[in-house]
Amino acid sequence: MEFANFTVIFLELLALFLFLSVLFEFVFKNKKVLISVLRNFILLVFINFFVISQHEYMFENFRKHAYGMWALLFLMYFIFIRDLYSYIKSIKSERASIKE
To answer: How many domains does one find in the chain?
Structure first.
């Protein structure tokens, strides 16, 4: 029962976060890349928190799902690092074009 309550609260927070990130993309249209980087970072934190806090229960009862969550976690690391790299690269190119 504790796992179910935790999961419901987690999904509610995740839905609220995703709604706010879409709303911010419409409001701040010129900062879409930064919002994407922040969204991926917060999703990474969410997934880390979920996997770390519930890993014992998941491995006891949902072994296949637990491995899927670990795979999702590593995929989120890759996506976050890629987005952060592209954001830093775009900032550097903007600064270089301003100097010229």
So the answer is: 1
